[in-house]
Structures are given as structure tokens and as C-alpha cells.
Amino acid sequence: MEILSQPIELAQKVCGSQKPCPGDWRMTHHCVSVPCAEGVLLYHTLTGELLLLTDEEWAARDTDPNLREALFRRRFLVPTDFDENRYADQVVHLAKLLNPPQKGITRFTVFTTLDCNARCFYCYQMGRRRPSMSVQTAHDTAAYMARVSQGKQVKIQWYGGEPLYNLAAIETILSDLRAQNIPYESTMISNAYLFDPELIEKAKNIWKLRWVQIPLDGTEEVYNRAKAFIYREGSAYRHVLDNIGLLLDAGINVIVRLNVDNRNAEDLNLLVEELGRRFGGRKGIRVYDACLMDYGNNRINAFDDEASGLRKYKALSEKIRELGLSGNVSIPRALKINACMADSDDAVTILPEGQLGKCDHFTEDHFIGSIYSDALDQQEIERMKERREDIPACRGCAYYPQCRELKYCFGRGGACTPVLQGVNLQFLRECVLNSYEKQRRKHETDR
């Protein structure tokens, strides 16, 4: 047995080692096993430890007493009647007490506008108001950031709508932050159509843009039909792919999100092949596939057959990885104690008219305050943090320690499906393999 990654420090501090006890033992549900060239990788999703067992050790995992005791001490084996999910909740609760959140708000998701130059049929904002942030509100937003960040660096995610549809808001906010000597860096969720070489240079050097996430829906015909841009000249698909190349040339990382559903799963295989030819192996790119979800607008035809849909998703994920497009994602090295920004005290959304929220899916309600006051609605903040308990699908799920499902998770109502569960576990398997391969490459380099 080889230890490839030690337990996460905070997890080790809270959990410690497990002392062998009498009775029957079984493999913990919080373990992902992944075959590899040298045997089987075991990843503990609560403690973060990664082990490598040879094929012989894996075959003897139920019979070798020394191996079983070693796995038990490292919590890969547990007593038969052990309630792992309850234990994971207790560990996270204690970890929060040992690792209190920082003071101040330093992470901001800024909606420069809810308007957009695309008309995606699945957009969860369709049918809602489309206000844009005024220059005055942008000034007020920067003042709010400076006030509540307490001198710390701020991290801004530009969001929309299409955030580039309102450049004045971005430039006003950042100009004011620079004038007040507030350090910052930014990221963006964008369809990338409006980038050009001059704007990319500004994004790199002035906006301090670290990465852009760009959604793609298929090859040229499928993409252009799904995005339905307001522009009629040329091919939006070709233009966006060219912009991905320009962003990478500038040293800005690009995350390509492939939106998968019933209509385009096969076509996305062709898209991945084209992305592989153009960008495979390039530094700074990561491609991942994500199943589209119905956010209450009834416009999304997800997979009719969940088992078939999950097979298509896994096949696509494997192709992405084979073509060198999966980036450098690896197993987390921090204990997951928050679900997302909704239950993180250092993060808020800022809407175009200055309202504050806790989740980027809520643009018309669930506000917690505004940039014009330091008073926040603590009741709403606590409601957004509430976890949904007793979800049947959570029992026996390896992903549970890293899930932290909240009641307000938009569109699912706290539910879970075999496809969603399979997507999460497939992502963990990719992280495990990437971590293993990084270790082996480092080992070869050091020799």
C-alpha cells in the first residue's frame, strides 16, 4: 500500500486515526475506487487521503488482516453499523469551529447587466427584467467593496446576462478600486463573443482577469442555433473559438463548459474532437461537461433515460480527458465546509440596481440588503444556509462529504438524481486519476 496523498491537515486534526475495534468491518461509503496502471486508487472523500493498492492487495482486501487493520486505521474500513454521513456532518461542524470565517466581505459576484447578446433557449433568466448597472451604481458598488472588504484583496466574478455587454460598469468599478488602492483580481462567466485583441489585453493587465468560463453547446450549426446571437454576420461559433485561442495566447485561463442534454450529447463528441485538434495539451485550458438542468422554465429536455444519459456523459468526460482537455483539476486539499457562496459569510452577489444577494440564480428575490447600507437581513442569510436533510440518495453516496446540499439549491429543490450523482462521482474519478498521474510525472522528473 502506497500513500499518494496524506489526509487534509484539518481533517486529520479533527478525525485522527481510527482504533481497531471488535466486530465486522466494511469499506466506507465515502471512498472512490479507480483502476489505474499500477493497481487500484482509493480516495477518501472526507479525509482527502489517496492510496494506491496493487492488484494483489486489492484482491486480498477482505482477507489480509494486516492490510485490513491499516485500512481501518485510515478510515477506509469502518464498523458495519457505522453512520458515516452523520460522522461527516459532525466533522464539518467541528472543523468550522476550529476554522472560523474571516471578517469582512471579499468575494463579489457582480451582475453588470442582466441583458445579453445571446438568446439561449435554456436561459434561467428568460422572461425576467434585464436592467443594466448605471455608471453611478458602479461607483457606489466600488465604494461598497472598499468599505466592507476591510483592506483585504477583493475577488470579483463578472456575471450577467453577458457581463461584457456593459463594459462601463466593469471599468468604473475597477478604476475606483485602483484609486483607493484596493487590491483585486477577477474572473468572468461569458459567452466570449465580445472579446477582441485590445479588450483581451486590457482584461489581462488592468482587469487582472485570471480565467473566463465559456459555455459551448455543440459544433457550429448546433451552437449557432442554441445561442441565437442577435448578430447576423459571420459564424458566432468560429468567432468564439478564435477568441478562446486569443485568451489562451494572452495567458488568461479558459474553462469551457459543455452544456449536455438529450438533443446534443452525440454532437458534443464531435465538438470535443475539434477542441482537441485546436487546443489539446495547451496550457490554461480546461473542458468539462455539465448536464443542463430545468430551472423551472420547462424548456429543457434532459435525458429521457437517465442510465443512457449517464453513459453518454461518462463517455464524453473520458474523451475530454484522453484528448488532454481536462486541465489540472485534482483532488481537493481543503476540507469542504461550505456548499457555495450561499453559506459563505465572505461572499455576496451585487445586482445591477445595487441589491445584495447570496446566490447567482436569484436576481429578483431573496435579497439580503443593498450596497447603500451596511445592515443585512440576517434571517434571509441564515435561510440561505439551511441544509436539506434526509435526502434518500445521500445514503451510501461517496460524494456526500463534498456535497453540502442546501435547501435553496435552485431548480432541484434539494433533490438528487442518479445522473447528478453520477456526474459528481465521475468528476471525482477524473480528479483522482489526474492527481495520480501528476505524482508519477513528478517522480519521473525527480529521478
How would you describe the overall organization of this protein?
The protein is an alpha/beta fold and 447 residues long. It has a domain at 2-99. The chain contains 13 helices and 15 strands. It has helices at residues 9-15, 55-59, 65-73, 84-98, 135-148, 167-179, 197-205, 220-227, 236-249, 265-279, 306-322, 378-385, 418-446; strands at 2-5, 25-27, 31-36, 39-44, 50-53, 77-79, 107-111, 154-159, 184-189, 209-216, 253-260, 285-291, 347-350, 355-357, 369-370. The strands form 3 sheets. A 9-stranded mixed β-sheet has the order 12-11-10-9-8-7-13-14-15. Strands 1-5-4-3 form a 4-stranded antiparallel β-sheet. The radius of gyration is 23 Å and the shape is globular.
Question: What is the strand content?
Answer: 15-25%
Contiguous helical run count: 13
Q: Indicate the percent of residues in helices.
A: 25-40%
Shape: globular
What is the CA–CA distance across the termini? 21 Å
- Give the SSE string: EHEEEEHHEHEHEHEHEHHEHEHEEEHH
Going across the biggest sheet, name each strand in turn: 12-11-10-9-8-7-13-14-15
The radius of gyration over CA amounts to 23 Å
- Write down the overall mean pLDDT: 91
Unreliable parts? 295-301
Tell how many strands the DSSP assignment holds: 15
What about the largest sheet? Answer: 9 strands, mixed
Class by SSE composition = alpha/beta
